[in-house]
User: Fold this.
Amino acid sequence: MREIVRQLIHLCFGLGIAWLVLLLDHTTAISVIAGTLLIGVVLVDLILRGYTVPVLSPLVQFGDRCDPLPGKGAFFFGVSALACIILFPVSIVVPALVALAVLDSVTTLAGKRFGRHRIHNGKSWEGSLSGIAVTVLCLLPFLSLPGAVVASVCAGIIELFSPVDDNLVIPVGVCILLTLLPALL
Assistant:
């Protein structure tokens, strides 16, 4: 149950960032994400110093895995989103953020529930393929079917093999792929 709630938080957080990037103008989106990251760093510092931050402390306590740095995944997601919105057009950033939010949550939940055939780092075929399939469907409002498939497979491969936190590298990897994709086809 705890992992389901954790993944729902991850999904909502990621889709919320994508929604902000989609709805706000470029400068405002950068300002909101950067400001939120700065506030997040201050709040995490307070938590690490033993203070209780209303709403955030219980959320971190319940939603975070046993990590010495509370909110690390959310922070990395925000840093990656900020880098992407600075470097790439919104039409590429939004699908990349949706890909991370959906793929990461679905692969984890499906892998824990149905995963029987392990591939790499304890991850399963069942989780990875489920994540890719659901991500394709979620990317269709933003990309063509071939684009959604390629972006989802790219995100799935990064999630499976990246030695770096996937919250950092999936959005950047998908943005690079979607930037190069027209030249590759």
The first strand starts at residue 118 and ends at 120. Residues 2-184 form one domain.
